[in-house]
Each structure stands twice: as C-alpha cells, then as structure tokens.
Amino acid sequence: MCQYTPRYPKAFGHPAWKLYGSVNDALLQDLFWRKVQTDPGLVSRLAKMLDPNATQEKEDIFLSDNTAISLHPESCGAYTTSRNRYLERLNGDCDDKKLISEAEKYPASGGYYLGPLFQQKFGWLPQNTCSNILQRLGMSLTQEDRYQFNQKACHNYRLMSDSDRQNAEQAIKNFATDFNLRISVIYWYSSENGNTAFGIVCLCNNSGNTIKIPISSWKRTGIPSGKVVFDLLYPVNSCPLYDLHKLAQWRGKANYALICANEATCETIKQDHAWITKLLPITTSSSVEMSDWSSIWSMIPLILPDNTSAGCQEAFKLFSTLQTWGLSPEFIKRQKINKVEVFAQDLSAIARPKGECNILEFAKHCRREFGVEPPRGILPQGQPLLELPGSENEPEMLLEGLLCLGDQVTIFAWRGVGKSLFALLLALCFANGHKALGGRVCPSRKFRVLLIDGEMPPHNLKKRARSIICGLGLPEEAANELRVRSSVADNKDLVLDTEEGWMDLLPDLMSADIIIVDSLFKVIPSAMSSDYIATKELNNFYSWCRRYGKTGIVVDHQGKNGHAAFGSMGKDIGVDAELQLSRPKSKKSKNIIEATVTKNRNFESSDQCWIMFRIENESGDMTFEPVDQAAIASSSTALQNGEGKGMENSDDNTFTPNKSDIDRTIIKYIRNHSDQSQGEIVKALGEPLRLGRSTLSERIKQLREAGQLDFWANSPAKGKRDVTSPASVEPSKRSS
C-alpha cells in the first residue's frame, strides 16, 4: 500500500536526461526517453521490468521498496521515494542542464527519468542503459523514427514568428556545441500564408557527414502568456511541403510541380536555373510519409531524383506515396555523371515536349543507368493480349465439354444419390487414362490423382474401387494407380482450412495433377457456413490449384433450394464448372442418375443435361452405362430418390431420407396411430421426414391407392374431418 503522497520532479515534456555516445546514439536515446515521457503504457512495462510485483494506484506505480513512478502528464516517467529531495521543475532553457545533473548525483531520492533506477538495479553503464532496455523489450528504433516523432507532453505546437526563428537558431547552436557539430544550413518550411512552420537543420561532424534534424516551437498548455520553447521535433500535424507559400500561388496556373530530392536541389535550381521558376513551382518534402501532399492540388508531380542508386530508390518510394494521395507522378531521368553541365542537360527535359517519362520508362532507365530494380508491386503487370504467356496447345480434356486439366469443378447432390461413387469412378478413370460413359469421361493419358476421403472406411472404399475397376474391364491392380489420403485410415481429420492441416497434405497435393476432395463438409468444414466470407479457404484452395495448373474436384451437398451446392453463393465464384447429380422422376429410371450442368465457364453449351447413366452391379462388377434420355418417360407421381416436391420450399430440409425409408416410416406410424386423421399424421411426420405438407399428403395417397394402407381404410379415424383436405373447408371459405 501507498505509505506517502509522491512528490515527483516535473519535466513538463522538456528533455530531462543526459545523452551519451555519438550524435546518432544520442538522438535515439532522446527518442526513447521522449516516448517514455508521453506513453504511460510504456512506463508500466518498464516498472514491471524493475519490479515484477509493482502495483498501480491511479496514476502512481509503487515498487516493492516504496519507490513511486509517475504516470501524470507533467512528470510521466519520473520517480521519487519517501526520502524525496525536492527537485525544481524544468523550464526548457539552459538552466535545465544543471537541474538534471544535480538529480543524477542523488538518484536514490528521485529523478526526472527512469535511467538511474535501471543503473542501480542492473548495474548498467549510463551509456548502455537505453540499448539494454530496448533489447529486453524487443523494441527497435531507427533514425527515421527519430525524425518523425512529434509529441511533446504538456505543450501545444505553434507557428514561429521572425523573433522565434532567431531563438530557435540559438537552441540549435547549443545542441551543436554539446556534440561538437557544425551547423551547415537551416531550411525553413513555411505555411500557406507565409508563416514559419518548422525548420530542417543540417549538422556536419568532423568526418563531413551530414545529419538532418527538425526544429519547431511549442508553448505550455493552458498558459497563454507562457514563453515559447524550441525542440528537435516535427510539428504535430502533417508537415507542409517546402516553400508552400510560393507553391500555393501557382494553384490553377501550372500543370506540373517539380518535386526535388531535397532542399539543396530546390535552392540550386532557384539560383542557377531561374528560368524553371517561371514555368512551374519547385518543392520537396522533409519526410515522404509525413508530408501533406494535398498541396499539389490538381498539378502533376514531376519527380526529379538524385543521380544515385539511393536516389532511384527514394524516387520509387515517393511515387508509391503520391499514388496513395490520388496523384499520377511522372519522372525526369538523371544521368550518372556528376557535373554541373550534365545537371543542366537533365533539367532541360522540363522544357522539351514529352521530356518527362512514366514509371515503366523510369524503371528501365534505373536498371540501365544505376543497376537498380524497382520494388515489387510498383510496376503495372498488364500485357498485350496476344503476348500473354502460356502454351498455344489445346488444354487436355478430362470431361467432354465440361472440364480441362487446370479447371476447377464442384459435384453436388442430395445424400444417397451417388456423388461419392461418381467421384471414385472419375478418380480411377483419370488415374488409368481410361475413358468411360461413352467417351464423356475422356482422359488422354494417365494422370497423378489424389483422393482426399473424409469419411468412408477403407474396406468400403476398396470394395467399391474393385467393383468399378472390374466393370471398366481393367485389372484389379489398376486401383493402385489412385493415391488416397483417408481420414479414417489416418485416424485424424484431414482438413485444408488450417495451416497445420494444409502443411500435412501439401506434399500429396504437390505430387498430384488432379485432386478430388470428398467431401467438402469434412475436408474444408469452414466452407459449410452460409456466410459469404466462409468460402475464403475453399476459394484459396481453388486458387492454389489454378496457380499450379492442377484440377480440383470437390464433392459437396446440395443446397436447400435444390439448384446449387449447400451454403454461401460464394462457392460458385472460384469454380469453372458445377455438376449436379439427381435421380429422374420416372418409374423407368431405376438406378439412373442424371448429371446436369449448372455452371460451365469455359465451354459454350445450351444442353444442361451433361449425361444420363445407369449403374448396374452384378457379380461384383459395377458398370456405368449411358442412357438415352428420350427413353425415360416422365412421371409426376413418382418421387425422386432423395428429393421431394415440397423440398425446395422447405427451409428445414438440407438432406432427405430416400423413398423406401419414407414409406416404411409412414406405414409404421399409421399402424401405431390408426385413430388419427390424415391431417394429424401429416403434421406429426412432416418435420421428422423433412417433407412439405403437400408432398407428404401425396405420398400417403399413393400408398393408399397401392393397397398398403388397407388396415387404415376401415379405421374409425377415417370418418374424422381431414383438416388438410380441401373437402374439409367450408364452401364459403373455399370460394373466398
């Protein structure tokens, strides 16, 4: 518990720490402690590093030894103890250094920042404290992060006056003196009305290297009469472009705006090539990402890069950024030779008709002149139609008029129709290069086929395969041409919608030409939802197959409406063809299956019925023989196997029992409830049998006419009014 009320030394957002090492090291240290000063969450993480048992009470964190760490805005990241020596508040002037040094002499009683506490606890050197903390936190900071940081606790950013600029220059001199640097030049960025927004300071060290840092002005929050202070920070809002005051005057007058690589190039052009200033505005940015490029308005950005490899890379980066602002940049090519007259020759392109170039021409120039490749994704990828890569040969046909190698297809049907059997026939034919169904299944050679089976026991799968192979007239060992991954045999789920499942199946997928998934419900279960986004992994599978030139055949359940696969319409998007299997409604259609095309992207066909075939199984030989469609007489009184007349209007029906099961259930129920009327029976059986009222009533009528309900005909219940029969409705209500 808190034993005292902490009195923290207050920094009010001013730098409150000593800096060590080179100027680059110092700038990164300064950035880290500024982040601590403006981020209470980061302070909490540091407190846990110092003491895992640290506790927080409102805006104070107490360590086990009663050291208190502040989360208050004016002192965030400072600390104190019960032995507090009162430290004066910082004011952002030259007196702050003395106060900071004094605090570091007596770190046991309090401090403006947490560095001394880490040095005490872990025995770190002051110059290594920041880097050691970053390593333990897993954080990394770069010079670019430093240049883009724009927060100052307890202060508001403000524009500079002329006198402010003089004071800012003095603040820069103090910083340069501390690190033995020389001020090379200061570039002042203006607002649209001509006020100074901030400055970019170029500092040189003894080695001749240049460092660029920002300088901006700030004022304490809530104190209108307070003094203005200057800090090495960007302004809080998007940075204006260089010389924005003059750029704004060109609005509506120029078609192009010249974007230079840096401020020095802008000034060189203004001084030595003044003719350009009469043609178009000249500007640059202090930071590509942080700048407000809307100031270009409707002008076309004309990018003038440095004539170096780094200049090409920066130009590509600027191009991408400008595109995100809705701009269409063009380029001025640069020659590699670094001479004044060559630079003048490069600039002359501005005055020449079509002297500028587009991204494709600039990328080609960078490759040739500087050996620089454009970043991935920056160049348009479109090609002339007749130059598209790919074989001129006709694709290999798998299913006549429906499917070629590399196409994707879904096969769907009600439960019990025979979709898994049909898929196995296709798998064995493709694996052996064997034609079937009168040539409709037409592989021209053997293909590598993988069957991913999610539910059938291996002994049943082998039994079916032997029967089909015998019926095709192939030797039994031909079944081994098919490769199978069986969920039952592997004793685990085989799925393609998780990373672990995908990696497990990937070696098998890569080694196959044709991949058959039976069924979608088991192998890609996420796709069975009716949500549109649920098909993401299914379409990813199709896309992967298409990318590698493989054919994916997915077995799916039929949807509620009876005309599409179960679930979201998004399943249709990724496939080239869809084939629906059903049993025709005819008394002559025993063992006959009709394959109907519901989608056919790559072939023109007006015939929806792809094929109709009969399955015969005699003496272990299973045959699939085409049937003449004209020979099948339609009958509206017979029910389709696995489907009913009321099915497509029933929201509760996804799968339906077959005809014989329906009949047995109806007869058994009526025997046990012979005292009920037909309306009561329909009401009781409709939901369990997943049939509509009209379909169930029609079936009961057919059973009665066939003599299978004679025992019910003499029942007293027959005298009851049937609430589902039109005869039971009063004449007045029927006429209405």
Q: What do the pLDDT scores average to?
A: 86
**Judging from the principal axes of the Cα atoms, what is the shape?**
elongated
User: What does the largest sheet look like?
Assistant: 9 strands, mixed
Low-pLDDT sequence parts: 633-656, 717-736
Q: What is the beta-strand fraction?
A: 15-25%
| Rg (CA only) | 40 Å
In which order are the strands of the major sheet placed? 19-18-20-21-17-22-23-24-25
What's the helix count? Answer: 23
Structural class: alpha/beta
Number of strands: 25
Share in helix:
25-40%
Instruction: Give the terminus-to-terminus CA distance.
Output: 83 Å
Q: What this model shows, in words?
A:
The structure is a single chain. The chain is an alpha/beta fold. 33% of the residues lie in helices and 17% in strands. The strands form 5 sheets. A 9-stranded mixed sheet has the order 19-18-20-21-17-22-23-24-25, sandwiched between helices. A 5-stranded antiparallel sheet has the order 1-2-3-4-5. Strands 6, 7, 8, 9 and 10 form a 5-stranded antiparallel sheet that branches. Helix 10 links the parallel strand 13 and strand 14 (330-331). Helix 13 packs across helix 14. It is elongated, with a radius of gyration of 40 Å. The termini are far apart. Mean pLDDT is 86; it is low at 633-656 and 717-736.
